[in-house]
Amino acid sequence: MKPWNTLFLLFSLLSGVIAAKPSADRFQKYQAISRSSPIDLDSAAFEELTTGPRDYYAAVILTAMDSRYGCLMCREFEAEWHLISRSWNKGSKPDGLKVVFGTVDFDQGKSVFQKYMLQTAPVLLMFPPTVGPFAKLEADPARFDFTGPMNADQLYSWISRHLPDGPKPPLVRPVNYMRIVSGITILLGTITLFTVIYPYVLPIIQNRNIWAAISLIAILLFTSGQMFNHIRKVPYVAGNGQGGVSYFAGGFQNQFGLETQIVAAIYAVLSFSTIALAIKVPRMEDAKGQQLAVLIWGGVLFGTYSMLLSVFKFKNGGYPFYLPPF
Amino acid sequence: MAKSSLDLLLKGSSGQNTRGLLRIVILLTIAAAAVASRLFSVIRFESIIHEFDPWFNFRATKYLVENGFYSFWDWFDDRTWHPLGRVTGGTLYPGLMVTSGVIYHILRFLTIPVDIRNVCVLLAPGFSGLTALAMYLLTCEMSTSPSAGLLAAAFMGITPGYISRSVAGSYDNEAIAIFLLVFTFYLWIKAVKNGSIMWGALAALFYGYMVSAWGGYVFITNLIPLHVFVLLCMGRYSSRTYIAYTTWYALGTLGSMQIPFVGFLPIRNSDHMAALGVFGLLQLVAFAEFVRGFLPGKQFQKLLTSMVLLTFGLGFAGLVLLTVSGVIAPWSGRFYSLWDTGYAKIHIPIIASVSEHQPTAWPAFFFDLNFLIWLFPAGVFLCFQKLKDEHVFVIIYAVLSSYFAGVMVRLMLTLTPVVCVAAALALSAVLDHFLVLSKPSPESQAKANAVDAKSYQGMKSPIVGIYSHFSKAFVSGSMTLYLLIFVAHCTWVTSNAYSSPSVVLASRAPDGSQMIIDDYREAYYWLRQNTPDNAKIMSWWDYGYQIGGMADRPTLVDNNTWNNTHIATVGKAMSSREEVSYPILRQHDVDYVLVVFGGLLGYSGDDLNKFLWMVRIAEGIWPDEVKERDFFTARGEYRVDEEATPTMKNSLMYKMSYYNYQSLFPSGQAVDRVRGVRLPAESPQLNTLEEAFTSENWIIRIFKVKDLDNLGREHSNAVAFDKGLKRKRASKERALAF
Questions:
Q1: For the whole prediction, is pTM greater than 0.90?
Q2: What is the ipTM of this complex?
Q3: Best label site of A91, B61, B243, B703, fewest CB within 10 Å?
Q4: Which of A227, A308, A310 should we substitute to test contact with B (largest number of B Cβ atoms within 10 Å)?
Q5: How many domains does chain B have?
Q6: Tens digit of pLDDT for each residue in B142-200?
Q7: What domains are defined for chain A?
Q8: How far apart are the CA of A10 and the nearest CA of chain B, in angstroms?
Q9: Where are the transmembrane segments (chain B) (predicted)?
């Protein structure tokens, strides 16, 4: 076993000498370029950074930033990646632990993507050092696939796990002074505005009808499954496979955005008819008019409820009840 | 003669008595209907405890009845969460068990020989009858209409939204908690209306009972302060509010702190801080009101108002500071996930994994409430018309709980009472006008004009009444039709959806006859009969309570889920290779492993369908050893057939589920009926476990963990050796035969 190791070391040393500058120099060089943000690498620079012996970790993210690729996650994560790099480079690290952060964009580094046979972006590759105190035997990079939207904390904890144990600089989100200042300004502005227009707004705030409208709309939205749309991020409508649009999702546990709005509207019509029957109709003094109003509202109530039942029957196939028209 | 006797009955003081009697008869009938409609499962199956959590409650109740109250209070249970154990007495809500224990002892005292199991099974229906009565009282406070209360009681009695948690056998905390919720609200409304210390103290008493019964008490803890806060903002401070709230808060908080599980939470947890804050604010406002009487100028009054606001602001900032510095615990995860809906999925997968914590799609609302769901907004609108203190309460309750019910299916339960109140208000408002036989006359119009001169808004014009009989018949007829559909709907839903004990399954044989699938009990009784008394059973946490209750064997994890790491350990053992799992099993003294497999029967709630949650929870603790990605194919599919990933195929769960399954089918024809795929021809090979028991329909499979090999070999080697030996011997015999 031992001879092989030495041989390997010798070989790697040799190849390192032939291939590139000593790793310490390379680290200095990239450190100088980077100035604490991740380095933009092209294929050649990537090769130089990651092949041959090195005494540093290289964390390289492979992304596709150009809008042509439509990689939303890549662009969203860009700022977070900078944050990780900056936190690391500015923070205090244990002696001898060196990490280089880099970014390879698809436009500059197609060959890198081919080399690792990557179909998706972004992907993080983490190359361990091959020489030095933290050297690892296998030089294969650890790979992190993004499965969904990430924030810096999650990725940073993953990176930290691949680094040797010990204290590491914490992730520092820079204080956004702009935001604080603008927040205070807006707050003060709101208070001022409020005091100025208070006499005019007061009747609106105290208006019972406005509060009634707000409450009823909220209730209608919630009871028609709006929160489900919000949490599950359901599509607004979907095609029915024959070129048309299907308004109602099949199945009891599914729904579309438009579907919930239709249902909310049905509920609203039903409630309004009930209110009309309970409050408006008994106050009508004209006997004929009242008769007509009862017929209209009662009819609307009946028809709409029948529709609601038929919609529900569509959602739940085994449902046995219905009302005549639908 | 007949007419005059009828008159005698319906008019004057005897008329009142008759109405009162009728009312009582109706209420009793409603209560009886509420109880009766919950008995489907007892009639269809038997008097059996349902589902998962009730089995723990039942076990705890038995312990209480056998060992008495004090040892129940100090109960340390070493037969769950092996090897950690659980301080059960201090980590449960004892209200349910104590209630049924008391009922049991009273019945025994009356020399009625009753089994504790039957008390437990029938507790929920019994309390639902009481809930209907409480609902009647609550709604009568909201409306002067004689019919509103009765309608609300009837709705509450049979609406599926409440039945879903209170059928016979569903012996869970909600069984009594909803009654306590409604009754506490009734007492609170009474207290606010009368400004009486007695009603406030009663509200606090029942609030304390509620705290002892259900974690959902936090809802009351926040709703009542919010009610008071809104009243203050509306400028409706009164000494009635002050008396009611301070009485309730002081006594209620003291009462709630008597429960060991709650302890000092009411003063140390953000969930309860709203109540404390409003208590402080109320004192300030009361003081200001008091001083205001002695102050002459407008300037002073302004100064006073700003002083109150400033003090409140300072107090609020102090609370925030205390929270940030950690003296007051932040919002508890379960509660917090109601506001930040993405929170649980990222941070507490164990909460997100429970199906009743999913958001509610609209069909579920209609399914549980039928036509009440569209009467509900109308009723809330009617509350805005009157808008007394108690109507403000209904409005706040309605908006908040419909939000909660939208976020979590389970909280449909808290929405149901307010829907019943509001719907009853709306329906009674309609029926009160349309069910009057006499026609409006000119005099009554004139009188109405005089009376209603001071009313406002939509009520500007006076109520006249309905003229034609046809209108009355049409509207009351159609409403009756809707009510009939409602009753039919409730019966249908209860009978079809909510009456399955889920311990015993029912299905239809091809010829239409009913087939009872009793695999769970078969397997649990096998464990009870065939394993040593302290054999440790490992299973996914869903089945922990049932194993404890029915098989009476120690388990590693159960539905209490208090220790996420321990659950993740089980998840890791299930989702890793045998070589990784076996040491974990040995370290935890596991003797048997139990898995639920629905592939043969097409039972979709099996462990392979829950498997991803095990993986996710394990990944949360060991992100390097268990990776969710490895269980998906390169194309991102979750597959169990030939193309399943190697990690999937080597996981203990996969192997246990499909072990020997192929032998049921002609070779190469094995089909998984849940996932609808054809399985690999070869059965997976198990080295460290051996099959101990498989139930009739293969739903439960139990495997025995092998002891260490006698010769110190690896299990895989030993198994290979055994196989090789057999083959050798076989060939030898053949050679001899030749």
A1: no
A2: 0.84
A3: A91
A4: A227
A5: 2
A6: 988 888 999 999 999 999 999 988 999 889 999 899 999 999 999 999 999 999 999 99
A7: 2-162 (3.40.30.10), 207-315 (no CATH)
A8: 32
A9: 21-43, 91-107, 119-138, 144-163, 175-191, 197-230, 242-267, 273-295, 307-331, 364-384, 391-409, 415-437, 473-494
